Amino acid sequence: MSNNLELSIVEKESDVTTFWKLFNNYINELSLNASIGDEFDRDYFYSDEYRDAIEELRIRDINPLRICFIQEEAMIGFLMYITYFDEGRKCFLMEYYIEPKYRNQGYGKLAYLKAEQFVRNEGALFIELTPTNEANERFWSSVGFEKSTDVDEDNKHYYRKSFEI
What we know:
The protein is 38% helix and 28% strand. The chain is built from 5 helices and 7 strands. It has a 7-stranded mixed sheet with strand order 1-2-3-4-5-7-6, sandwiched between helices.
């Protein structure tokens, strides 16, 4: 692994198409490994309804959803987040994916640390997320997230990491 990891925001239509191909890999894997919360609705994530909702969030003017590619020499993953500047400057990390062949080599941690710096520079004061399984819980705890007592609609605990100002 080199230290040449780059994050780039998806903006062009060709990037959106590339994202959805990578997203399909992610959903296939997630559907096999999700273990925390309610039953996983795989069909919803493949639906036009979901994709239209994501696109609407991505192109809106206020608090737009950001999709970032994680790249070294090749595309190794993506992340999706929204920073709610009107809700205490909370960044909600919706999805985070590293291709399986790049895992357990430090890419995930390095990519997260770059993403954290990126959202801090945008003005976020903290990041919040909901892990989908125990391996995810361990990873997010290892990069400084703490499990909260708050839960989402699927009864998953939020994990938070606040930034020192």
